[in-house]
């Protein structure tokens, strides 16, 4: 059989850059295969994908040497439009890709552009909506859909062209864990029913492996480092050194001293043959001390019976009560629309609650304005670009003090102090544009920190970041907590973040506080994870298959162990 | 580098119009003159016109004003819609000189060119086109519409002159790449 | 945040019409309203406007706030006209019948009252056209309709993109504004003008920056799905014209001719009851 995608000694260089981004790529993908391409940011994986759909070089400009054939043709000469008939690309940003005003129109978009007659278009749209299970939502607007549904529409929008290859560019980045799981299942179902080849670009390896893939391509520095079957690649243990996070259960097995081989089938925790290692793991568990972390004494934030709804009929939040202790790192989790942002907005004073109260260090803060609350409770938006409004770092960080009329030397002194804490001091006179994403994130955090808040609320602090950047941001936050005693609440979809960095989890579901406990308890509770659209941690599965009871203790011990290792490494 | 009218321009017209509409009810009242307010949306239109050219600027002005008025107030005052397009088109004419998206809007020369253009464009739009349309369509008294036009002219050159320039300079600083920076101790 | 006027799905004759015919009606209606100053035509248009309000199933509470706002604006405008040119009516109609002397050079005349009444009615003839067009036309149909009247499809499609992203940008604006306000950057504060504009810049800047990013993402997504490669494009939600549509289009064209004939048959666009 001939490959449907074939790179031969392929090198690609962007016009705007001096060095090539891809070197000597040799890769053959055969019809019907499901390929996962992993690699950290800057490894060239997205560039590779954009060579397949002809965005490179047609949209962004660049030169290549060697050959690339997709379904027998050279994408560069066929152009983006020509390639769109062969390769359907599902982008990471589901809102950016949803162009139509309704589901049906969005699926029809490519047909409209191809001037397909209306009647033919309607029947094709119906058929495609069926395939992506969106037939019941044809006239829904994007605002009425969840992230997962929007992604299905994106998928429908490219499948309507009867493409041969489906290319997914980080499909899991913006989804909650349970929706991500269902996306992976849907891709599997589509492959069973349709004659397509699937290429997935994603660094969240464990989540993609929820369903089997044929091969994993590992990239680093513009080169292919490995092209192997998942079992072999996972057993080889080379992923972490290339910036890819191994599945948690595998990391735990290695910690415990098990030497995993491809024969153990390590690519799936459910199908893995654990028999050879169960004793080693149990042994490790019994000999590892349990570390008990003690909470801060003082209650910093207390929320009592908070209720909120935009109108009387529909409550967005009902009877939310919890308290947070000084220096805690808290994760606020739940599916999209469960009320996480609304709760944060109520705490920050962006909305007024219908009833109930928010107490900061024992006193009711309801009389305070947004600005006054902002001095005590800082709010950091998801993307630093949504907050940065001054071109120079120093000005940006000092802005909050400046508008409050602080004297100039106090501003200077506090800005410098904050920049030092955030590791930005050497760059204090740089423009923001010269910084990396992680550094910009730190600037946006510094611009809040400069006001010395008691609590900081962070919206998705690591969304869309690869493992290295995730670790950079989270270790920074942890250091901040350890050094300043700042209390942090993080709104997140990332179960790893929740497990590894937070001491306390608040689980919301349909406006109710479902659970208020440690992350390990939450993520080992089947009922809760199901109701809150979370995903049970694979450590639980590992623990049960090794006969360790209760699994929660195993999770605790492993996470504690890993935290120490990571702090040592940083 | 790519000066032809492409998809990016179509999208800029659409999303620019959306942004213009969203900012419709953000107004800065000036104390001295009742019933006039500075409109930050004008500065945003000027920014997008400078970044994407005359067609994009003109369409955002026309469509944004008509749609914004219609969606917020349920009616459209046509004689004030067309002048808006005039401003957008005029500012957009010098797109290549500004090179906003490449970070080129950073010299005194571009700032002066931008402001001279916007003052001339606003003069044509509000001291000529709008009053003339008001006279032609509504037979309104000339002295009244010219007085109104003069206020609109002043308001718009102030907001575009300050906010528009701030946005353009700021964006160019952020979009442009910086070289020879070194970390300090 | 203000609630925007938006499409409401209903089953009336007007809702059933194609967006194309409503757009044609809307354009011709606005042109006629702009050209005529004939009181008889304006009154007919006003009455017909009221009729289509009712026919479209619009409730009073939907329009009451708009009505009040427009009335306020018009009152201010009419008073302004009076103070700037108290005898504009006399100039137009060529006669002068004083009613009351106010002060100095200001007297209220019949001509001025009649002229200002015409301005008021004239303005009120446009409102129903805009309003009904918005509440009865499915936004999905709008771009197809604009393309239908001869506007290139790339420009027509930008209308669809605008409508698609208004809610997203509105939401993002609200979130950015809140976050900046918590940092102490408020829009409405007492401060010198330049300082106040700087604050606004701090709020608009991030929004503009993310809008520029959004433009890039959406352009790529559209390019990947073949937008703009062909000379023409079809529209999924274009409604086919039926007999009622032809009737409406023919009706409004006939109306326009008759109205403009009546308006201009005596040499100018004003109806003059004073001679």
Key descriptive features of the protein:
heterotrimer, B: mainly alpha, Arp2/3 complex 21 kDa subunit ARPC3, 2 strands, 2% strand, C: 275 residues, two-stranded antiparallel ribbon
Structure notes:
- The complex is a heterotrimer of chains A (570), B (185) and C (275).
- Chain A folds into three domains: 5-238, P-loop containing nucleotide triphosphate hydrolases (Rossmann fold), CATH 3.40.50.300; 247-287 and 539-570, no CATH class; 299-538, Rossmann fold (3-Layer(aba) Sandwich), CATH 3.40.50.300.
- Chain A is 39% helix and 20% strand.
- Chain A is built from 23 helices and 19 strands.
- In chain A, strands 5-6-7-3-8-9 form a six-stranded mixed sheet, sandwiched between helices.
- In chain A, helix 5 (103-113) packs across helix 6, helix 5 packs parallel to helix 7 (147-159) and helix 7 (147-159) runs parallel beside helix 8 (177-193).
- Chain A is globular and about 70 Å long.
- With 185 residues, chain B is mostly helical.
- Chain B has a two-stranded antiparallel sheet with strand order 1-2.
- The model of chain B has no long low-confidence stretch (mean pLDDT 88).
- Chain C has a domain at 151-236.
- Chain C has a two-stranded antiparallel ribbon.
- The longest helix of chain C has 32 residues, at 193-224.
- The mean pLDDT of chain C is 90.
- Classes of the chains: A alpha/beta (570), B mainly alpha (185), C mainly alpha (275).
- Chains in contact: A-B, A-C, B-C.
- Chains B and C meet through helix 1, helix 2, helix 3 and helix 7 of B and helix 2, helix 4, helix 6, helix 8 and helix 9 of C.
Which secondary-structure class do the elements of chain A indicate? alpha/beta
Give the strand order of the largest sheet of chain C, numbering strands 1, 2, ... along the chain.
1-2
Extended strand count of chain A = 19
For the biggest sheet of chain A, the summary is: 6 strands, mixed
Order of helices and strands of chain C: HHHHHEEHHHHH
Biggest interface, chains and residue tallies: B-C, 61 and 69 residues
Number of helices of chain A: 23
User: What gap, in angstroms, lies between the N and C termini of chain A?
Assistant: 48 Å
Distance between the termini of chain C: 51 Å
Low-confidence region ranges of chain C: none
Strand content of chain A: 15-25%
CATH superfamily of the largest domain in chain A: P-loop containing nucleotide triphosphate hydrolases
Q: For the largest beta sheet of chain A, what order do the strands appear in spatially?
A: 5-6-7-3-8-9
Q: Which architecture name of the largest domain in chain A does CATH use?
A: 3-Layer(aba) Sandwich
Q: How many domains, in number, for the residues of chain A?
A: 3
- Percent of residues of chain A in helical segments? 25-40%
């Amino acid at each position: 059989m001939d490959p449907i995608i074939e790179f031969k000694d392929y090198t690609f260089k962007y016009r705007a850059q001096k060095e090539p981004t891809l070197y000597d790529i040799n890769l053959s993908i055969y019809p019907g295969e499901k390929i996962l391409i992993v690699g950290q940011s800057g490894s060239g994986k997205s560039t590779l994908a954009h060579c397949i759909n002809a965005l490179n070089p047609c949209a962004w400009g660049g030169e290549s040497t060697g050959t690339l054939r997709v379904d027998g043709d050279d994408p560069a000469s066929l152009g983006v439009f020509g390639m769109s008939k062969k390769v359907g690309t599902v982008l990471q940003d589901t809102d950016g890709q949803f162009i139509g005003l309704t589901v049906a129109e969005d699926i029809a978009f490519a047909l409209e552009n191809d001037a397909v007659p209306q009647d033919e278009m309607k029947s094709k749209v119906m058929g495609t909506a069926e395939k992506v299970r969106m037939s019941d939502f044809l006239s829904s607007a994007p605002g009425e859909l969840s992230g997962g549904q929007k992604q299905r529409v994106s998928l429908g929008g490219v499948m309507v062209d009867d493409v041969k290859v489906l290319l997914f560019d980080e499909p899991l980045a913006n989804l909650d864990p349970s929706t991500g799981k269902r996306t992976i299942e849907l891709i599997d179902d589509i492959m069973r029913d349709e004659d397509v080849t699937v290429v997935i670009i994603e660094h969240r390896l464990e989540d993609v492996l929820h369903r089997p893939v044929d091969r994993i391509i590992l990239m680093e520095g513009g080169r292919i480092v490995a092209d192997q079957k998942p079992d072999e690649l996972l057993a080889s243990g080379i992923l972490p050194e290339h910036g890819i996070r191994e599945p948690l259960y595998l990391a735990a097995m290695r910690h415990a001293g098990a030497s995993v081989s491809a024969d153990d089938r390590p690519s799936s925790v459910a199908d893995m043959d654990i028999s050879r290692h169960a004793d080693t793991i149990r042994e490790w568990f019994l000999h590892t001390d349990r570390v008990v972390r003690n909470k801060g004494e003082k209650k910093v934030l207390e929320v009592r019976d908070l209720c909120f709804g935009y109108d009387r009929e529909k409550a967005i939040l009902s009877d939310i009560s919890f308290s947070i202790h000084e220096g805690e790192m808290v994760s606020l989790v739940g599916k999209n629309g469960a009320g996480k942002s609304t709760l944060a907005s109520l705490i920050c004073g962006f909305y007024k609650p219908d009833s109930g109260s928010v107490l900061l260090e024992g006193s009711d803060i309801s009389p305070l304005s947004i600005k006054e609350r902002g001095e005590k409770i800082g709010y950091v938006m998801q993307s630093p670009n949504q907050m940065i409004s001054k071109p120079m770092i120093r000005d940006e960080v000092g802005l909050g003090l400046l508008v409050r009329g602080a004297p100039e030397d106090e501003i200077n002194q506090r800005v410098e102090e904050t920049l030092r804490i955030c590791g930005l001091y050497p760059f204090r006179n740089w423009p923001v544009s010269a910084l990396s994403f992680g550094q910009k994130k730190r600037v946006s955090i510094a611009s809040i920190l400069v006001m010395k808040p008691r609590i900081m609320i962070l919206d998705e602090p690591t969304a869309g970041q690869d493992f290295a950047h995730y670790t950079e941001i989270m270790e920074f936050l942890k250091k901040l907590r350890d050094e300043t005693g700042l209390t942090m609440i993080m709104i997140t979809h990332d179960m790893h973040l929740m497990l590894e960095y937070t001491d306390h989890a608040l689980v919301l579901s349909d406006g109710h506080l479902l659970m208020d406990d440690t992350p390990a308890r939450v993520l080992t509770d089947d009922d809760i994870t199901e109701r809150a659209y979370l995903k049970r941690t694979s450590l639980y599965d590992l623990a049960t298959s090794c006969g360790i009871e209760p699994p929660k203790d195993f999770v605790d011990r492993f996470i504690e162990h890993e935290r120490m290792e990571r702090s040592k490494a940083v | 580098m790519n000066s032809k009218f492409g998809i990016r321009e179509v999208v800029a017209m659409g999303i620019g119009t959306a942004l213009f509409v969203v900012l419709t009810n953000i107004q800065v009242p000036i104390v001295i003159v009742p019933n006039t307010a500075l409109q930050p949306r004008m500065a945003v239109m000027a920014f997008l016109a400078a970044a994407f050219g005359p067609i994009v600027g003109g369409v955002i002005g026309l469509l944004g004003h008509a749609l914004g008025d219609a969606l917020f107030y349920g009616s459209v005052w046509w004689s004030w819609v067309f002048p808006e397009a005039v401003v957008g088109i005029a500012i957009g004419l010098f797109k290549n000189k500004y090179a906003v998206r490449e970070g080129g809007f950073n010299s005194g020369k571009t700032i002066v060119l931008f402001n001279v253009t916007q003052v001339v464009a606003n003069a044509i739009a509000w001291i000529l086109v709008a009053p003339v349309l008001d006279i032609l369509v509504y037979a309104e008294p000339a002295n009244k519409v010219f007085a109104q036009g003069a206020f609109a002219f002043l308001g718009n050159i102030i907001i575009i002159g300050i906010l528009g320039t701030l946005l353009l300079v700021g964006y160019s600083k952020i979009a442009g790449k910086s070289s020879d920076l070194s970390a300090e101790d | 945040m203000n609630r925007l006027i938006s499409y409401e799905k209903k089953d009336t004759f007007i809702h059933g019409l194609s967006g194309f015919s409503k757009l044609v009606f809307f354009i011709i209606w606005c042109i006629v309203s702009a050209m005529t100053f004939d009181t008889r035509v304006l009154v007919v248009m006003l009455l017909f406007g009221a009729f289509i309000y009712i026919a479209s199933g619009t409730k009073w509470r939907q329009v009451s706030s708009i009505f009040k706002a427009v009335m306020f604006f018009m009152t201010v405008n009419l008073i302004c006209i009076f103070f700037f040119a108290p005898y504009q009516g006399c100039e137009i109609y060529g006669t002068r019948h004083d009613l009351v002397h106010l002060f100095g050079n200001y007297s209220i005349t019949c001509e001025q009252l009649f002229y200002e009444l015409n301005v008021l009615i004239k303005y009120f003839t446009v409102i129903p056209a805009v309003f009904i067009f918005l509440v009865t036309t499915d936004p999905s149909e709008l771009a197809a309709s604009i393309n239908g009247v001869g506007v290139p499809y790339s420009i027509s499609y930008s209308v669809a993109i605008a409508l698609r992203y208004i809610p997203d940008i509105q939401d993002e604006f609200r979130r950015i504004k809140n976050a900046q306000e918590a940092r102490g950057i408020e829009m409405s504060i007492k401060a010198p003008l330049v300082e106040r504009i700087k604050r606004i810049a701090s709020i608009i800047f991030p929004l503009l920056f993310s809008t520029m990013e959004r433009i890039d993402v959406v352009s790529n997504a559209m390019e990947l799905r073949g937008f703009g490669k062909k000379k023409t494009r079809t529209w999924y939600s274009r409604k086919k014209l039926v007999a009622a549509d032809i009737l409406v289009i023919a009706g409004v064209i006939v109306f326009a001719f008759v109205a403009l004939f009546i308006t201009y048959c005596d040499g100018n666009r004003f109806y003059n009851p004073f001679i």
